[in-house]
Amino acid sequence: MVIQITITTNASQVGRRMGLKANRLGVATRQANNDVADFVVQRAQFYAPIKSGKLKSGIKKERVASTNKGSTILIRSNAPYSSFQELGTKPSANYGFIRMRGKGRYGEGFMSKFAYSRHPGVKPIRFMSRALEDGRKAAGQIVRNRVRQAIRS
Question: What is the pLDDT of residue 44?
Fold first, then answer.
């Protein structure tokens, strides 16, 4: 399960309006992008279900690209079952034959037994989607604060 957060800003236009050099604005947007990614990772870990802790500890961020206009950071969950927790699964029936050792119908050897089970499915938890929505709501304030700090310094 991968969520990609991208913050890009046309630094030359915004910088001219604010009286800020493009380089300083690029640094501010990279820092803001990093802050938003940290916030989303923190929220995803908060929303993730905890049974063994593998899902929660597997949520990480990594920087993919960085330019003077901004950066791209990937947030991913490395647990192999994270997509099942995020999206859910439908109910299913499992059936088949199980080979068992022991005395069979016709003497020694293997015998088969029919097995049937019904799995109710997994309801979607949407831990990454909810974290991304929280990040979208908080991103404006985080970017605004970083740009204000860049203007003041």
Answer: 93
